[in-house]
Amino acid sequence: MGITQTTDKTFAEDIKSSHLPVLVDFWAEWCGPCKMIGPILEEIDKEMSDKIKIIKLDVDSNSQSAMKYAIRSIPTLIIIKDGEVKSQHIGAASKAQIENFINQNI
Questions:
Q1: Theoretical Cys-Cys bridge with 81: which of 16, 21, 68, 72, CB 3.0 to 4.6 Å?
Q2: Average pLDDT score over residue span 34-56
């Protein structure tokens, strides 16, 4: 499926159009920890594409969506299921930690 890069304009539709729960990665280009988890999310996307859809939102270019979800630190990962935020993880994490976060919330 591949990770979707979303924007303020497409964010709501990207969430609504998914029949799977959605993991949203709020990130920024200048954020070191964000860059660390990027490749991990790519791996997880390949391995769990039948369980979860992953989308990324650059908070610098898309502040509306970041404000809507009260994102104060990055990286922040949130899981949205059936239109509602199920859980949030703030900060860098290992692949195992992210997989556990997903499995506990989908």
A1: 21
A2: 97
